[in-house]
Amino acid sequence: MGNHSDGSPNHSGTVATAGQNEVEKFQDPGLPPHRLRLADTDPVAAKRAERQVAILFGTSVIGTLIFLVAYFAIDLGDDSTIANIRTQNLLLGLGTAFAMLGIGTGIVHWAKALMPDHEVSEERHAIRHEEDRQAAVRIVDDIVEETGIKRRPLIRNTLLGAVALAPLPALAIFGDLGPRPDDKLAHTMWAPEGGKLKRLTRDPDGTPIKASDVTIGSAFHVIPEGLNELHEGKLNAKAKAVVLLMRLDPNSLNPSEGRENWSYNGIVAYSKICTHVGCPVALYEQQTHHLLCPCHQSTFDLTQECKVIFGPASRPLPQLPIAVDAEGYLVATSDFKEPVGPSYWERDEHERLINS
Amino acid sequence: MSASSTAEAPFVAKTKVGRFTDFVDERVGGSGILREFGRKVFPDHWSFMFGEVALYSFVILLMSGTFLTFFFDPSMAETHYQGSYTPLYNVEMSVAYNSSLNISFDVRGGLFMRQVHHWAALLFVASLGVHMLRVFFTGAFRKPREMNWVVGGVLLILAMAAGFTGYSLPDDLLSGNGLRIIDGVIKSIPVIGTYISFFLFGGEFPGTAIIGRLYVLHILLVPALILLMIVIHLFMVVVHKHTQYPGPGRNDGNVVGYPLGPVYAAKAGGFFFIVFGVLALMAAAFTINPIWNYGPYDPSPVSAGTQPDWYIGFVDGALRLMPGVINNFHFEYIIFGHTLTLNVLLPALVPAGIIFTVLFMYPWIERWVTKDNREHHVLDRPRNAPTRTAIGVAGFTWYCVMWAAAGSDLIATHFHVSLNDVTYWLRTLFFIGPILAFIVTKRIALALQRKDREIALHGRETGRIVRLPHGEFIEVHAPLDEYKRYKLVGFESPVPLPATPNEHGVVTRKEKRRAALSKWFFEDRVAPATPAELEAAHAHGHHEAIEAGADQKSLSH
Predict the structure, then answer these.
(1) Is the pLDDT confidence value at A22 over 50?
(2) Which chain B positions have a beta carbon within 8 Å of A278's beta carbon?
(3) Which of B44, B183, B195 faces A278 most closely, judged by CB atoms?
(4) Which residues contact B145 (CB under 8 A, 6 or more apart)?
(5) Among candidates B355, B361, B386, B367, which has minimal Cα distance to B142?
(6) Where's the Rieske domain (chain A) (predicted)?
(7) Could you say which of 1.20.810.10, 3.90.1700.10, 3.40.5.50, 3.40.50.300 is the CATH number of the domain covering B51-179+211-247+256-297?
């Protein structure tokens, strides 16, 4: 038991350590005899190898020259074209490649063909010596003894306490890396401002959309009115507020209770931010009425209020309640009734907050 | 001059290099170092090059990266592009994206440097991964190298971190969506997720802080840590000396190979230039990350067929594979008024967590199971450790299934199959793939061992068919010389270790579990051929009789 080296050549070749199993296994014959290379015996071959190495180094010089010529001869001035840049990139790369490969293959060829290729054997040494270990243990003991830390527990305990608390300020300082989340994720730009409902406008130019322009089967990428005029936090606002607008046959929509008037004439608006991890759900399959997220393939069914029918998302896309204003433009009657985008720990809390 | 005329003439070097070396040595005492390392022996094998590739890629990353920092501006302030790439002229974008475009189109050699940098980053992680596979499959992680294996694992994680932080810097549409996915994953963390997200991005996503913060991580903190880990890694390689493949003349007490100077240094040094040259060739001929095609980051658009850099693929694939809803069971639910979104949390953390936990712990697991506390400097041929090899391939398969899932949409469009079917298949493979891989690999390893045994005992097939006087056809087998044979028979084949009582005479449950695992490890084994068997094979075999003369020679020991 415990001996699982039977049949093992653990110390094969060293007869001195031969164990009782030694008869049952092959002896290590030792290093195979060294075979001379052509260049070792034939001076002509050696000379040839020498020339080959020199040629390879010469190739490297040519590569360096190609690089320099490409760098200085091709000028990326104002009138440069993409073709210029491509050519320069290719030549710079080829030049570097030749310069490097010439040196590299030259040296390796030199080493393999001309340098001595005798494999040599070296003894391994113990990583640790027992003497050193004992000396080290004594040193550590002496150090601990001289500090007196064992005899003075008061010092030890207060030090431990102080060291344990000392990193707290460092943690506190990181607390200002960003503002507190509060309920920022619960709201988007769609909330009416001063009683004025926000119009749905085209992404990216911000022109409002007339309901009559939305034909059955069409889809619009939508941003809220006023987004482009924001001076600060435009991308932050956009990251939450982007919406997809589609028009279906009103009969194919199956609005649930309370959502009957969230659409207009078959026009529906849903958050474009995937409820999985936040990619834009940008693909609209008009024939099947599916929305597909290109990042992780979550698929949402428009006819079932964007219920998840495939993929890793777990929640339907939030719907934006819309209507038409006096001039016939589409407007959002309120903000989303739930937080948009990927789920987070406080999400349910925020949803209750929105609906209270 | 006067010194040379005295009786005790000090050492005077003959060559210029010698005199310079002497100058340095007198001041820093380098001769001790040179004496230690100048002729240090390094074993040679092609599979030892992967680690070198990783090291050299990192050096190239440092060089090309330094160039890029001279021109890159990590600001997220808004600007309008005025550079020479006309399709984006006057488009609103961040300063970071603007400067990345300028590096590509208006800095001479900038595009080349960007491409070298990106290709080198991809190669760095790839070569690290392959190097770790080599170390795993050859058992190089065993005592005394367990800690260096862990350092290697840390390096792999750091390399991925370096890659990801750098990937996001140009602030283009593709990497911006990548960041958004990271944000979504972070938000799924219970209790503190939202706070981490706000702290990382300096507020709501995307904010105006993230590129600058990633930049500091990418050019300072992560590379410094990588450098530190590389130093520790190489220091331990020197302390342990390199492992070597089994073969005649090689054992755990010696190291056989070429001396550092000149052969090994020349080969390794020359190899740096080769790696650089190949990367330059790739950067010259193959476009990587054409950020000008993607456009600046905007939370609204996204391109179809998006892919992360390859090393993040397995996490992205896991995210894709996890169903959010099974029938009517939702993986997102409310606990105590809070949202727990397991459909994101589980795939993002669990597979990567399992892979890295097992990876870090494996040397200790195997040591516990085998009770093998000896030092190992001779590697295992993967076939000679069938269970370990099978475990490795099973893990690798699992990784590859997730990695393939990151391209599920591209698989579907390229092969004109249903995207949903691809996902269903990959979900199935996620569970059964590793099991199948384990079984198949173990059988292949055992079969290869049997083949080795066959060759050791009966010689190799020569392809020469001979008809014997009584009409029988046989193929002549040529016996191996003793060196080649030793390579096939010189390995350990451990047997299962039954549970043993401890000092109180009790067989603990832990020990029973260990014994069960030991059985699982070593139950199926092929013992190496022995001289007695060889003799028997020769005595009974007919076809060897033809070459009896040669046989006699090889049996001389």
Answers:
(1) no
(2) 180-181, 183-184, 205
(3) B183
(4) B236, B240, B243, B363
(5) B367
(6) 267-331
(7) 1.20.810.10
Q: Are A277 and B324 in contact (CB < 8 Å)?
A: no
Q: State how far residue A122 is from chain B, nearest Cα, in angstroms.
A: 5
Residues A101 and B119: their CA atoms lie apart, in Å, by 17
The number of domains in chain A is 2
Domain that holds residue A46: 38-113
**ipTM of the shown complex:** 0.89
Q: Is residue A216 within 8 Å of residue A179, measured between CB atoms?
A: no
Tell me the whole-structure pTM to 2 decimals.
Answer: 0.91
* CB-nearest partner of B284 from A94, A280, A315: A94
Please list, in sequence order, all residues whose beta carbon lies within 8 angstroms of the beta carbon of residue B252, skipping any fewer than 6 positions away: A10, A11, A124, B374, B375, B376, B377, B378
Q: How far apart are CA B354 and CA B345, in angstroms?
A: 14
Q: What share of chain B is helix, strand, coil (3-state, %, to 5)?
A: 65, 10, 30
Query: Taking CA atoms, what residue in B is nearest to A13?
Result: B249
Q: Please give the pLDDT value at position B538.
A: 80
Give B94's contacts (C-beta < 8 A, 6+ positions apart). Answer: B75, B76, B77, B78, B79, B171, B211, B296, B297
Backbone φ and ψ for A280, nearest 5 degrees, come out as -70, 130
| CA closest to B44 among chain A residues | A119
Of B199, B204, B266, the CB nearest to A174: B199
Across A43-52, A192-201, B10-19, least confident range: B10-19
Which residue's structure tokens are 């070569």?
A: B127
Residue A301 Cα, gap to closest chain B Cα (Å): 14
The answer to whether residue A18 scores a pLDDT higher than 50 is no
Tell me the mean pLDDT in the region B187-198: 94
Q: What is the DSSP letter of B262?
A: I
Q: Which residue of B has its CA nearest to A185?
A: B204
Residue B296 DSSP SS3: strand
Ramachandran class of A73: left when φ > 0, alpha when ψ lies in -120 to 50, beta otherwise: alpha
In A43-62, the residues whose Cβ lies within 8 Å of chain B are: none
Contact between chains at A344 and B305 (C-beta distance less than 8 A): no
CA proximity to B300, closest of A9, A151, A329, A243: A243
Which residues does A20 contact at the CB level (< 8 Å), separation at least 6? none
When pLDDT is cut at 50, 70 and 90, the band that residue A303 belongs to is very high
Q: Is residue A83 part of a domain?
A: yes
Q: Give the domain-ending residue among A92, A113, A134.
A: A113
Residues of A in contact with B261 (CB under 8 A): none
Tokens of B301: 């658009």
The separation between CA A6 and the C-alpha centre of its own chain, rounded to angstroms, equals 49
